[in-house]
Amino acid sequence: MTVPASRTRPRRIARTLAPLLALWPAWAQAFEPPAGEPAPAESAAAPEAQRDWIVRLDVRGWYVAPAGELTLPSSGPAGNAVKLSTLDADSPRFSPYGELSVQADRLLFTLAGANFSADRSTTATSAYRLGDVEITPGDTVRTDLDFTLAQASVGYRVFDHDFDAAGDNRIRVWALGGVRLQDLSFDVSEPGVNRTRRDVFTGEPFVGVRTEGRLARDFYADLDLSVGAWPGSRSTFSFDVAVAFSWRPVSWFGAQVGYRLLITDTETGDGLGRFRFDGSMAGLFAGVTLRF
């Protein structure tokens, strides 16, 4: 008679685990501290308190949604400032978002980047003109949006306080300065009728602060806040804030969740050649953080 696999599988697992379970008392005794010597307290923060160099890599997925108004250059009558929600281009989606930082004593060097892409089609419910595309109610409108952000910064630690001798309760604050680059691409069309496209690349200096602190055992919080701007014919302004909460059971690895809001206002040209995107990118993110 054939025994069903569902009955034999538990027996095979038990036979496999039996030798390992038999060795468990010996393993446990091998890792116990010598008699009379207390077991050392584990802490993810203690090793870092004694290190001058720390390399940190954050790998995240950002569930981000764009919002705001878009104005594109036109060769004819001036166009309208159209909301991304009108184009159905404001739906959230997961996008890559990462950061690499190196702490060298009081200095902090950081590289960060993110990308968002969307390809949406919708049926217009109102009349408007976006660039050279004239839309009337009932028309099909297709929008391709691509947003890439990259930034580099240098920070100097201006505050470092330990609430206990082991360094388990530590708050650090860095003053930051750097450069933020943005690459915006908008392609709007009425399929088979007309199309308008605009690519804009901008750069701006920014200043900000970064704070790292411990909330409870193995639980940490980071806050990044920065403001950037560049005047002139290709003017930009940005405000970026991100807060992250991490669980770090060991010093080199942590799981992370947080929220980021980036407000940006980019404008180039004037008159019929004016481009402007006055909007934001915002959403929750999750990922892992590695420290070396």
| Beta-strand percent range | over 45%
Q: How many individual helices?
A: 2
- Which structural class matches the secondary elements? mainly beta
**Secondary structure: number of strands:** 13
Jot down its keywords.
two-stranded antiparallel ribbon; Lipocalin; 292 residues; elongated; disordered N terminus; mainly beta
Written account of the structure:
By secondary structure, the chain is mainly β. The protein has two helices and 13 strands. The chain has a ten-stranded antiparallel β-barrel. The longest helix has 26 residues, at 5-30. It is elongated. The model is unreliable at 1-14, 16-34 and 36-46 (pLDDT under 50).
Layout of helices and strands, plus pairs?
Elements (H helix, E strand, L loop, with lengths): L4 H26 L15 H4 L3 E19 L10 E2 L9 E12 L2 E17 L4 E3 L2 E3 L4 E23 L7 E21 L3 E23 L2 E12 L3 E17 L2 E16 L6 E17 L1
Brief description of this entry?
With 292 residues, this protein is mainly β. The protein is 10% helix and 63% strand. It has one domain: Lipocalin (Beta Barrel), CATH 2.40.128.
